[in-house]
Design a protein that fits this description.
This protein is α/β, with parallel strands linked by helices and about 375 residues long. It has two domains: about 25-40 and about 280-380, Aspartate Aminotransferase, domain 1, CATH 3.90.1150.10; about 60-280, Aspartate Aminotransferase, domain 2 (3-Layer(aba) Sandwich). The chain has helices at about 5-20, 45-55, 75-85, 100-110, 125-135, 145-155, 180-190, 245-255, 255-260, 265-280, 280-305, 320-330, 360-380; strands at about 30, 90-95, 115-120, 135-140, 165-170, 195-200, 225-230, 240, 310-320, 335, 340, 350-355. Helix 2 (about 45-55) crosses helix 10 (about 265-280) and helix 11 packs parallel to helix 13.
């Protein structure tokens, strides 16, 4: 192959660098203010012990095939049963990642005559599923119930005959704010539609017993909930909760489920233990809630920036290159913080995404904010 075959790729990378958008892989370093390991379970002794016990009782590392071939292990089925009970769903399906689950869901469940109305800040994985679905999709203003309602009415007025699918995150990953779930659920009921709730950043830490903000809604026939296992639960994969009919339809029609090698049975065993930890150790959530409240208050007091009220708060910078410089300064100071830039966030909203986890304490938060204040003043 000639060098010229790679020139277009190199030009694209150079263009990204000029715009301050070129990405690179960075090893974890310093105090954790960037991960989603909210309950500090990823390295917990209980999860390690659960993996060891599963190995001892003969659970294999790999599934060996898709769930529809030989890859359907008893650990998968036990997890799905226990998750359905824990979250209050009629049935649960285990996927290898939240991205795969969202892509499979939206490319499979909405039918040709339906419409998908999604929040403007919805996950990229939802967009991936929508693109594969070939179903009409409309963007609604962020957390704007009237905008969702208006999009559905406009579609009906133009002859729409199917069902609307309302797609939101319960807690938004880059802004840390909550969706108006009860109002959106009422809207879905009014229009004979479905509500899909991505609980990625709420599962394990919010709602009764850590069941998320959708706990009062999960189990309804027209509600589909995605619980990510790689954030507060400390493992990986995702659990999709829905009616038995919708889950069975996914097993039969979702290409991302049918043609993917099943997740490791050891991972399923670890997620089972994570759910038990969520049920048996409420003190983790209490400590997490207090730490998040402290961080939000300290952000306002020390930098004059209003917090999101959750464990995720964005520090808006605007300029891509400046955001990268400030993040690099903080990593030099010993704090693992990353710059988030377009297209992950809208143009002109490059930011630092700071996440609070039980891997830090109050002195570490205060010290980080002191260094952040200095870096923001000096990096222009």
């Amino acid at each position: 192959m000639s060098r010229r075959a790679l020139d277009a790729y190199e030009r694209t990378l150079q263009g990204l660098a000029r715009k301050g958008r070129r990405r690179a892989l960075l090893a974890e370093s310093g105090t954790d203010f960037t991960s989603n390991d909210y309950l500090a379970l990823a390295n917990s002794p209980r999860l390690k012990a659960a993996i060891s016990a599963a190995v001892e009782r003969g659970v294999p590392v790999g599934a060996g095939g898709s769930r529809l071939l030989r890859g359907n292990h008893p650990e998968h089925e036990a997890l799905e049963f226990e998750a359905a009970v824990f979250f209050g769903a009629e049935r649960s399906l285990f996927f290898g990642s939240g991205y795969t689950a969202n892509s499979a869901l939206f490319s499979t469940l909405p039918q040709r005559d339906d419409i998908i109305v999604h929040d403007a800040l919805i996950h990229a994985s939802v967009h991936e599923g929508i693109a594969a679905s070939k179903v009409q999709a409309v963007t609604a203003g962020h957390n704007d119930v009237d905008a969702f309602a208006g999009a559905i009415r406009k579609w009906r007025g133009a002859g729409g005959t199917g069902h609307p699918w309302i797609a939101v995150e319960s807690l938004y990953s880059m802004d840390g704010d909550r969706a108006p779930l009860m109002e959106l659920a009422a809207l879905a009921e009014e229009h004979d539609g479905f509500l899909v709730i991505d609980e990625a950043h709420a599962t394990g830490v919010f709602g009764p017993g850590g069941r998320g903000f959708s706990a009062a809604l999960e189990g309804r026939e027209n509600v589909v909930v995605l619980h990510t296992c790689g954030k507060a639960l400390g493992v990986s994969g995702a659990l999709l909760g829905a009616s038995r009919i919708l889950c069975d339809y996914l097993v039969n029609r979702a290409r991302g489920f049918i043609y993917s090698t099943a997740p490791s049975p050891l991972t399923a065993a670890a997620v089972r233990e994570a759910l038990r930890i969520a049920a048996e150790e409420p003190q983790r959530r209490a400590e997490f809630e207090a730490l998040s409240a402290f961080a939000n208050a300290a952000l306002a007091a020390m930098l004059g920036i209003e917090g999101s009220g959750s464990q995720i708060f964005p520090v808006m910078i605007g300029d891509n290159a400046r955001a990268v410089r400030i993040a690099a300064r903080l990593r030099t100071d010993g704090f693992d913080i990353r710059a988030i830039r377009p297209p992950t966030v809208p143009e002109g909203t490059a930011r630092l995404r700071i996440a609070i986890t039980l891997n830090v304490d109050r002195p570490a938060i205060a010290h980080m904010l002191e260094r952040l204040k200095v870096a923001m003043a000096e990096e222009w």
